[in-house]
Protein: TerD family protein
Amino acid sequence: MTVNLAKGQRISLSKSDGGELTAVRMGLGWKAAPRKGFLARLTAKEIDLDASAVLFAGREAVDVVFFQHLTSDDGSVRHTGDNLVGGAGQGGDDESILIDLQRVPVHVDQILFTVNSFSGQTFAEVENAFCRLVDETNGQELARYTLSGGGPYTAQVMAKVHRESGTGGAGGTWQMSAIGAPATGRTFQDLLPVLASHL
Structure:
């Protein structure tokens, strides 16, 4: 059963049978909002949203996975590739980032997921945008966060997966928190100052 996450909500990433999740996929989907008027449709350009995952050890960014660096240095996080135009908004993932939770290095305790409008359009020009977390071992959707409200922003800090504090490093249970914080920037680098406030 999917949990529809509200901003700030957190869920534990443990299986209903008590087992630990081993591999998850963060999916991102979107489509362009319909444009009104002949001239607007004529001059419209495709919307290119980019999903990124920034790996943190404490408060320090130690690696990033995005369209120009598709696999983390340790191989635990992998981007499936850049989608330049989005989809039909039918619920499928336009970009995905796979995380092998068992291979994430012990010192990495948080992975933040961001979405940027590389082409510069605001979220007011995007429809049906969502981020979802899927159990990669069986394809079950665990949580979904909808990018609602549009607005004059070109980026969003979507969510993070993080080790539960106080459980001793590598043995820590992973949790997901929906953040949904609007921001401005065409790339994840533009968001680094904002990400610090969500660690």
